[in-house]
Amino acid sequence: MTIATDRQYRVEDELLHTVLASFQNTPDPRLKELMQALVRHLHAFIREVRLTETEWQHAIDFLTAAGHITSDRRQEFVLLSDVLGASMQTINVNHEATADATEATVVGPFYVEDSPEVPLGGDMAAGAPGEPCWIEGTVTDTDGTSVPRARLEVWEADEDGLYDVQYDDGHTAGRAHLYTDDNGRYAFWGLTPTPYPIPHDGPVGRLLENTARSPLRASHLHFKATAPSLRTLITHIFVEGDELLGSDAVFGVKHSLVERFERQPAGTPTPDGRDLTGQTWTRVHFDIVLAPQPSAQRSA
Ligand code: BEZ
Ligand code: FE
Prior knowledge:
Helix content: 25-40%
CATH architecture of the largest domain: Sandwich
Shape: elongated
Number of strands: 12
Bound molecules: benzoic acid, fe (iii) ion
CATH topology of the largest domain: Protocatechuate 3,4-Dioxygenase, subunit A
Number of helices: 7
Order of helices and strands: HHHHHEEEEEHEEEEEEEH
Structural class: alpha/beta
Oligomer: single chain
Strand content: 15-25%
Radius of gyration: 23 Å
């Protein structure tokens, strides 16, 4: 790395201050704060690593490739944010520990609005291949009061590591929504989560490869929980003992979200009498605690 001389330092600093000043008259104070901080950090990065023009062109080519692969069905920029930990850091900043509320994690690219409704005890797997899993728990607020009629949206990959939307046939499986009962309880059948790679056939995949990182996500099942006057929660449950817990490609694992999935030998009676003759199945308990709605969200 070249050591900048005093004169060189002054040239670089002058440019930084000229660019900062160009945002001085931004009418929206928040936009002004964001743009000036972005410029400060970007210039600090360029100066710290003494960025070469070839490297800068590589970065432009990378972003161009990310743009080209992005479509209605593929969002490479969100994926980039995920693998850089920017998505999780934004979640952390916005969910400062609210007394005992369930922690949030990344939404990921496979959430779909308007999933089919299943009744309590229903099967959201809907034919997706994998080991059946009975998932049950409660939804409460941070005072411990149960939340009846909370809406739970759940989605997960099948045992081949694919979400329904990654197949070309348009079928829906491994996703559903349901509502808690009068006592805030819920239960449904899904699949025991298994690990799968994030989409890695594009520029983000090449970045992971060039940096000796794995595209694998720790096994998980997604939840989105909504209820009036309470903060919407997007989270996962992770599987205790999964060896990928410490190396999740998108840094989504929170210790508090790791749950024990108890494997039941074939022939073990199921909670609702479902006939699973000859098959092992698992069960997991996951209680969800929703924080109060922040005031800005309340008035929106
Ligand atoms: C997911 O869990 O579905 C996911 C999250 C971030 C990036 C890719 C996939
Ligand atoms: Fe996922």
